[in-house]
Amino acid sequence: MPAPHRFGHDLVRETARIELPTVARLELHRRMADYLIGRADVHARLSEVAFHCLEALPAGEATLAVTWGERAADQAMVQLAWEQAAEMYGRVMIAADGADLAAADRGRLLLGRARAQVRAYEVRAAQESVLAVAETARRAVIAGPVTAACGSAGQARHSAS
After folding, report:
1. Do 139 and 110 meet the contact criterion of CB atoms below 8 Å apart?
2. Which domains does the chain have, with CATH numbers?
3. pLDDT tens profile 17-65
């Protein structure tokens, strides 16, 4: 299998990025992510896969971007690259808005970001992440009974007709 194309200089890469129409650029990122995912050494390339999955959005699959982004962020934490992990978790949270994530999954991502931010000495940002976890949990706790009540009311209305 031929080696993937690499740009020899950042200026060449930036020029190619700017010159490509948006749809074509998003499609190339999606195709590159698919190619990397199919490689035997995919676990050594988590940050590359995550980068291309995230760059393929909004045309790409948000759930895929969240999955690979979280893996890359977790790997960065293990490698003690806390700033990189915090940044990746932040990008994953943006991608999560387009994915159908459960509150528990969203909370897990927010906690991961908060841990990375604490270790990177981004205390204010970590506080905001923890508050977002609390808000996510509060909404999930409130949403459960409200959803159940709405379902019960809807069933009662249908059985009365």
Report:
1. no
2. 10-141 (1.25.40)
3. 676 788 888 999 999 999 999 999 999 999 999 999 999 999 989 999 9
